[in-house]
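Weekly structure sync, notes
Attendees: PL (lead), two postdocs, one rotation student
Agenda item 3: pending single-chain targets
PL asked that the sequence for the first pending target be pasted directly into the notes so everyone works from the same version. It is reproduced below exactly as submitted, 195 residues in total.
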Amino acid sequence: MKLVVGLGNPGREYEHTRHNAGFWWLALLATEERVTLKHEARFHGAVARVVHAQGECWLLQPDTFMNLSGRSVAALARFYKIESEQILIVHDELDLPPGAAKLKKGGGVSGHNGLKDISAQLGTRDFWRLRLGIGHPGESSAVVGFVLNPPRREEAGLIAEAMANSLAVWPLLRDGHTQAAMLKLHTGAKTSGNA
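Predicted structure, written out during the meeting:
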């Protein structure tokens, strides 16, 4: 992975809402990698560079609203000539229950406005996604209010657990061992870093 993007909405009023799960995950990753996200106007977001044995990776938190996330992602990807399959987008997922985290490459955007805009701006859906389950309110008419509100306490605990589990596979992802990362995340299997 050369670029990891956490999706969310900027502003204190959105900070603790379910839609900002991608921001939460990216902040945890930045802490783990001991880097600080700093605003870069040309990339419409906060950026940090992680240097590791395999090269370098950029962390990005767009400061556009969710439905304009693609502007930020495309600006950084084009500047550093990063291919779509080297991009990981971390986002909230209505179709997974709290506590679930799944990795996948490509596929539909399930009505997620951030993914929709990123696909449009990159001209492809062929990027990696880390989907953090937030659950579904049950009715489509309730979705907007649901994602723009904080999770209940028990849900927050499950989401935090899913984030810890998915952060544990980051070294595999970073080094390009995507299949091993998926196996470990989806089944809890023990894998070696050489898988």
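Discussion points:
- The two ends are 16 Å apart (CA to CA).
- Residues 184 and 190 are 6 Å apart (CA to CA).
Action: rotation student to compare against the earlier draft before next sync.
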